[in-house]
Design a protein that fits this description.
mainly alpha, Mitochondrial carrier fold, 2 domains, 19 helices, membrane, transport, transmembrane
Length: about 500
């Protein structure tokens, strides 16, 4: 206790006397006391609080030489002080273990009663009775020198909170897996509907056997677009949309659910094993990001591959190019009739295994979403700071998703091309069923390395737009859920 403050206390009467540095000589005792409390509190926050130091300014005061009021760490003195300053029931004892503990901890902080304050903080840690995360952070901040580190104390407090607050959700960006999965699936379905014509064109370009269908060449793309318009009109660009939308919804939901679930569990395990007292990590290493992305991708694709095979068949049917393998049936059938016919043909050709044609390539290509999420994490670490990293804007989400998918597709495109050809109809009279290596070998022998990138420009356009829209919508839905949570919590 400082000498100046010691001299301002009248222990014979058990109550404080006004001190000229902090008290305003006007108004009643309660008004003066509240002014003193505010000035002391402001002084502490402006000088020591990492949360509030930029919000408080005390002009005209020499904050370096004037310290806050401190009172003796005696329970009786504190009780007498509160009875003077606050309208308490006469003679009522203040129990540090009572229901109002979270209110009294603020008062102990204001008066610098550190031992009582620490005892109250410990009770709040074990019972989780803080009404807001902000209170918990301030409480942790003011006891970090005498109790434990700021980060550890906040972590311990949050572990005891039964219901996550909106602030927690905003700080950690760890919404429940089902919410992330639902928002991701919704974004993927909308993005798929928007970009589906590009997807259909990409498939037909990839299946074209013309030697001019390589990166930068637009003649094949124009020819395919003109033929589709002439044959079926605008509706022809949405052939197979039903099965593809179902496949996209299922695949995206499973992927985002597994990715969110595995990432949360891995972070928890990583932080639980942290015995150094350092700040809890919200980042995974590159191998860890790739691992959980790959597991999520393989699992989701293994379930939805049959729908992908059906979609490729539907898309290739409408392209009656003499150099393109596949059926040449007209697009006059109703959608569900075409789907039933395609399913029957696949089963007749290869049995149940035909619905998983190209699965070996799919397993390899499951690194695509893994690389996409890895590049997205790297994008956020390199180019986004502060709150934008955890809660990107719509534009930031779109750009991050587009850039990350662009890089992933560029890296894996030869496998994407091979998968499309594997899942299309076999060539007439073909004796041996093709596999990944045979398809890649045929392309290389016929057209060289450039042939491995046939249709790349259209694929990149589709991938960039699709992933950008998906992540933008996903993040907007999640932000809306957080806002709804805040409104319901404050209601």
């Amino acid at each position: 206790m400082s000498e100046a403050v010691s001299q301002s206390l009248d222990y014979s009467q058990g109550e404080p006397r006004p001190h000229h540095t902090y008290y305003i000589p006007s108004g009643d005792l309660e008004f003066q006391a509240n002014n003193a409390i505010f000035k002391v509190h402001s002084y502490f926050l402006a000088n020591h609080s990492s949360v509030f130091k930029d919000m408080f300014a005390l002009p005209g005061e020499n904050r370096k030489s004037s310290g806050p009021i401190t009172l003796h760490d005696d329970y009786r003195a504190w009780e007498q002080l509160l009875q003077v300053f606050y309208p308490l029931v006469p003679g009522a004892a203040i129990d540090p273990k009572g229901d109002n503990c979270d209110r009294f901890v603020t008062l102990t902080h204001k008066y610098g009663m550190n031992e009582i304050e620490s005892a109250l903080i410990q009770r709040l840690i074990t019972t989780g009775t803080f009404e807001s995360l902000l209170d918990a952070i301030v409480a942790a901040r003011i006891t970090e020198s005498s109790t434990t580190s700021y980060e550890n104390l906040v972590t311990r407090i949050l572990q005891f909170r039964r219901t996550p607050s909106p602030e927690q959700l905003a700080l950690t960006s760890t919404l429940p897996p089902r919410i992330q999965a639902s928002s991701g699936a919704a974004g993927a379905v909308v993005a798929n509907a928007i970009t589906y014509p590009l997807d259909l064109i990409t498939t037909r370009v990839q299946l074209s056997r013309r030697t001019s269908s390589y990166p930068g060449d637009v003649s094949t793309t124009k020819r395919i677009i003109n033929k589709a318009l002439k044959k079926d009109g605008i509706t022809g660009f949405f052939s197979g949309l039903e099965s593809d939308s179902l496949s996209t919804m299922m695949s995206s939901f499973l992927y985002f659910y597994l990715y969110s679930f595995l990432r949360t569990r891995m972070l928890q395990r990583k932080n639980n094993g942290n015995s150094t007292g350092s700040k809890p990590s919200m980042m995974l290493s590159v191998p860890e990001e790739l691992l959980i992305g790959y597991i999520s991708g393989v699992t989701s694709k293994s379930i939805t591959t049959p729908l992908s095979v059906i979609t490729v068949r539907l898309q290739s049917e409408g392209h009656d190019d003499e150099e393109t393998p596949g059926s040449v049936e007209k697009g006059t059938e109703l959608g569900h009739n075409r789907i039933i016919r395609v399913v029957d043909r696949i089963y007749s050709e290869s049995g149940l295994s035909g619905f998983w044609k190209g699965m070996s390539t799919t397993i390899v290509l499951s690194t695509n979403p893994a690389f996409t999420m890895l590049f997205l994490q790297l994008f956020q670490r390199l180019f986004l700071k502060g709150k934008d990293r955890e809660r990107p804007t719509g534009a930031q989400g779109f750009i991050g998703g587009a850039v990350s998918n662009f890089l992933a597709v560029l890296l894996l495109y030869p496998l994407i091309l091979a998968k499309t050809r594997l899942q299309s109809d076999s060539k007439p009279g073909e004796a041996k069923k093709p596999n990944l290596l045979s398809v890649l070998g045929d392309i290389l022998s016929a057209h060289g390395v450039a042939g491995l990138y046939q249709g790349l420009s259209v694929q990149l356009s589709k991938a960039v737009l699709n992933q950008g829209v998906t992540l933008m919508i996903k993040q907007r839905i999640e932000a809306g859920i957080v806002r709804m949570y805040r409104q319901s919590a404050s209601a």
